[in-house]
Amino acid sequence: MARLITTRQREILTAIIESYISTGEPVSSGTLAQSAFANAMSSATIRNEMAELADAGLLEQPHTSAGRIPSAEAFRLYVGQLTSAPATLPNLSRTDLQTHIDTSFAGIAGASALLERTSHVLAALSSGVGLAIGAAASTDLLEHIHFSRLTQRRVLAVVVTRSGMVRDRVLALDHDLSSVQLETAANFLNQHFRGWNIDRVRNELARRVDHERTVYQQLSDAIDLWTRTVPADAVQQQSVYIDGVVNLIGLPADRDRLRAMLSALEEKQRLIELLNAYIDTSEQSVRVIFDLEQQDPGMAGLVLIAAPVQVSGDSAVAILGPKRMNYESAINAVSYIAQLLHRIDTGEVAPTSP
Q1: pLDDT digit string, tens, across residues 42-66
Q2: Domains in the chain with CATH codes
Q3: What is the pTM of this model?
Q4: Of 265, 280, 232, which Cα lies nearest the Cα of 136?
Q5: What is the H or E stretch that residue 1 is in?
Q6: Strand-pair partners of 131
Q7: Dist CA 322 CA 58 (whole Å)
Q8: Spacing of C-alpha 346 from chain mean position
């Protein structure tokens, strides 16, 4: 911010932001004088202060005859006030928010299920997009693998684990395989390795190739497909859980911008990179990030509220939504869920029965 603002300007700016969050409409000095200050401050005084706030880069005027709306810098200042205020989370056990969250997680166990439920709960609480990322569980148990031929030398691999995780990957092969060859490879893997964890499958395949190369030469296709589907660095890969994308469709965005938003959300790897770019797993505090378009142009107009959490490895939970949101509720929800997941992961609390 270019300069400090006065206490009165801060009160006016807060009133404008809260009115805009509530109505989505530009705020005029006359409306503000009546609704926020009960005519204790004149419209002329408010108008002059709003002009000063606009010069400071905190208010914008979308149309010549319209009122003013908060800038990204204004929202940043507003959120800074919320996060620097005395924490409300220690008393959260007596609020409806914690009760709702605790009830939503009742009976949920396992890292994948917890993160999936997290995205759903955050989406419902915020009317935005709920996000959760976590390390892909290479120690999860294989339930089923399937290969489908897409085009020449391109195959879709789908791995289903016992925890319910479904991972798909398009493989670019060095040589073409027929549908029969793909089915033979999948049958071999399912017959011999169903119920094995991912790392054990990889290690056992490597052992068989080294010690019984002549016997398993005919199964080289299966080994090659598995290696490409679940590479050696799979433990470092991350899975992303998304819920509430439909909430963005109602935003007052032009068609091209909305298409860019939805396209960015469809590319899960971009979301993982976005969260990893802003989340420091060594810090447990909630971060509120504006100007996401600097990281990804498709995120223009959106705000990310995120926190790191340990759920069987480094993970993160977040809300992605428009600038018009209930920041205090969203920040508290993200913070509390991050704490709850950490306590469940460390065994401090156990999921209760539904």
Answers
A1: 889 999 999 999 999 999 887 766 6
A2: 7-83 (1.10.10.10), 87-136+237-345 (3.30.450.40), 142-234 (3.30.390)
A3: 0.65
A4: 232
A5: none
A6: 242, 318
A7: 17
A8: 22
